[in-house]
Amino acid sequence: MDFLELAKERYSVRVYSDEPVEEEKINKILEAGRVAPTAHNNQPQRIYVIQSKDAREKVKKCTRYSFNAPIILLLCYDEDESWFGQNDRFGSIDPTIVGTHMMLEATELGLGTVWVGSFNAEITKSEFALPSNIIPVAFLPLGYPFHTSEPSAMHASRKNLLETVRYL
Questions:
Q1: Among 71, 83, 99, 91, which Cα is nearest to 41's?
Q2: For labelling, which of 64, 81, 142, 145 has a CA lying 20 to 30 Å from the CA of 19?
Q3: Every domain of the chain and the residues it spans
């Protein structure tokens, strides 16, 4: 699939089938994240693959948006390894880029994802016993879309380039 087609095809999946995700597909998705660019190439991202029933139940304590996905990736960064530029740390940006790569690879493999940024960080750190230097950024539910899953009505609604781009 051509990249622009892939980017347009990807949508937020909020209903998943209970079909298990093959290990080789999970590995390809994780590899897509591994090769993503990060600030200064510090690679501070830390990805937790949540797949056991008990671990998925913990996610439900952190956010109401788990969507009963069979796999949930917890995207974090190591605060000690994130690059500090002129004005700010890039810690939260790096796992966001990594997550985008993984979402697109998942789409290429026939899987669905949804970015979940609405969660309680303190509960997440506690439930998953994250060290103090590991900062959670988002959850990424992952799995095969349920047969009735479809893009939201707003999916194709995009502003005109003239509204979002300025040539200087």
A1: 83
A2: 64
A3: 3-142
As given in the structure block, the two tokens for residue 96 are 């966001």
Q: Is-contact 135 91, C-beta < 8 A? A: yes
Report in angstroms the alpha-carbon separations of 85 from 43, 89, 106, 136: 14, 6, 31, 20
What whole-number distance in Å separates Cα of residue 166 and Cα of residue 81? 34
Q: How many helices (H) and strands (E) does the chain have?
A: 6, 4
CB burial class (10 A; 0-12, 13-18, 19+) of residue 100?
A: middle
pLDDT digits (tens, 9 = 90+) for 44-70: 999 999 999 999 999 999 999 999 999
Condensed to tens digits (0 to 9), the pLDDT of residues 130-161 reads 999 999 999 999 999 999 999 999 998 999 99
d(CA 36, CA 44): 11
Rounded Cα distance between 115 and 18, Å, is 19
In CATH, 3-142 is 3.40.109.10 = yes
Tokens 């090769």 belong to 35
How far apart are alpha carbons 35 and 142 in whole angstroms? Answer: 19
